[in-house]
Amino acid sequence: MTQRMFFILAAALALHGAAAAQSADGAKLYAEKTCVACHGKDGTKPLTPDYPRIAGQSAKYAERQMLDIKSGARSNGNSAAMKGVMHLVSDAEIKVLAEYLSKLKP
Fold this sequence. Notes:
Elements: H1 3-23, H2 26-32, H3 35-39, H4 59-71, H5 79-86, H6 91-103
């Protein structure tokens, strides 16, 4: 396999993974990735007062926060609690979750 063919195949697989995650149901991901455990069923009643209410957050803001926690760029506050979960969430799933959260009523 040539290097060019490898990159084409890798790009196709990445697009397929992104498309699959984009079509995923945000509510289902929210439950499966255990977001509900700390942020509450509808994102408005966190487990503790220290955890944020995430319903209605801007999709871009929520996505950036999740990506930063996942990468370690954000390590303040209670981000350590999320760090243990974020490795289970793909970047494409983060985008779906962020869009879902932005549509929830605060």
